[in-house]
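SAMPLE LOG
Freezer: B-3
Tube label: C17
Construct: single chain, 112 aa
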Amino acid sequence: MRGAFLTTLLAAAVLTMAGTAAAGDAAAGRQKAMQVCAVCHGPNGVAVAPETPNLAGEPEGYLGRQLRAFRSGKRQHEVMAVIAKSLSDEDIDNVAAWFNSIKVSAAPPENL
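STRUCTURE (predicted):
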């Protein structure tokens, strides 16, 4: 019984994630991001301000959900609310595709 419940729960989670996957146009997203995102999040999604998150390499679905939450007021941030309200659903999908398309790598420090 418990196994069936967990299987059903996992299947629902997978379907939910699949349903939220965006199919944005990264090239169009890059153009929009240069207009509205680059000042704070940097032209390549690496933030230029210390309190601003990096967006490069983040999943499309995650970015799209966050931008829609800012736009609707479900997520609060004074600057992001204004920015997100100016974005259409297509803009959001495209910007999310752009930042997701940026490849990010990490390396541990050599001296440890």
